[in-house]
Amino acid sequence: MSSGTPLPAFQRYQAEFTSHIRNPSQVPRPAGVKDRGMAVYREIVFNNMMSTLTACFPVAKSTLGIRQWTRIVRTFFAQHACRTPLFRQIPEEFLHWLESSPIENLPVYLYSLAHYEWIELALTVSDAQLDPERYITDGDLLSGRPALAPALQVLQYPFQVQQICPNFKPTKPDDEPTHILTFRNLEDDVRFIVLNPVSARLVALLAEARLTGAEALQIIATELQHPKPEVVKQGGLEILENLRNEQAIWGVFK
Predict the structure, then answer these.
(1) Burial class of 123 by CB neighbour count within 10 A (0 to 12, 13 to 18, 19+)
(2) In total, how many domains does the chain have?
(3) How many CA atoms lie within 13 A of 23 on its CB side?
């Protein structure tokens, strides 16, 4: 159908119907439709969107308060054309929209907090797997290549996102970033661990390259210009063992 051909009547009606549901304050309902009937559709569809987003971002909702949260969700619902029909992917679309949201005066921490909450869903549904035949659980973490949990991310935020709540709402970025390791453990539970910069760098190196624990720690010692690399290696081994105990590291590759 060419761009100059008018839409059939039923498609025009569908467009008017859905446009009104998305933005009832700006778009009138289709002619001849009673508001009582439209109200049912408006409530059901918007509540589905609200429930989907609130399930992924409960801390954002409680921190902002119901009035501001509803306003943000309503604006997203009215303005954003989702590229997916899957409800579980809508939170990711909301996150991308939030990054460049047209809403003025949003809290400076909101995108970071939303990303921190969304990553739990992302790792929960990730299909990343690690064949048990590829690693041994009790190998040497220095001479061997540590096998990280397959669903794992090393994150950096300008706020202490894990502390944000109705009683803690930062108004400006912290002087130092917060490093957080998030991963899905052997029981398929998503875990979060706050790391110091050295620990975060170590995990990032192991995730990026095929390095043994000792090789990764040597890189860190060089970057730090540490006069005693063996001290870095010993401290790093303790970090690696702790991460194995927490199941962020599953073992050593064969």
Answers:
(1) buried
(2) 2
(3) 12
CA dihedral 91, 96, 99, 104 (to 10 degrees): -70
The pLDDT tens digits of the residues spanning 218-250 come to 999 999 999 999 999 999 999 999 999 999 999
Token reading at 225: 């210009």
Q: What share of the chain is helix, strand, coil (3-state, %, to 5)?
A: 50, 10, 35
C-alpha span between 146 and 139 (Å, rounded): 8
* Chain centroid offset of residue 36 CA: 38
- Please tell me the distance from the alpha carbon of residue 203 to that of residue 86, in angstroms, as a whole number: 32
Instruction: Say how far apart CA 221 and CA 230 lie, in whole Å.
Output: 9
Residues contacting residue 133 through CB under 8 Å, at least 6 positions apart: 254
The size of the chain, in residues, is: 254
In a domain, 150, yes or no: yes
If asked whether residues 132 and 102 sit together in one domain, one would say no
Structural tokens at position 104: 């003025």
- Distance from C-alpha of 170 to C-alpha of 42, rounded to nearest angstrom: 35
Over residues 8-19, the mean pLDDT reads 67
Structural domain harbouring 90:
1-106
Residue 109 to residue 237: CA distance in whole angstroms: 34
Residue 244 belongs to a domain with what CATH number? 3.90.930.50
User: Measured at the alpha carbon of residue 91, what is the angle toward residues 85 and 94, in degrees to the nearest 5?
Assistant: 95
Scan for tokens 């700006």, then name that residue.
26
Over 90: is that where the pLDDT of 8 sits?
no
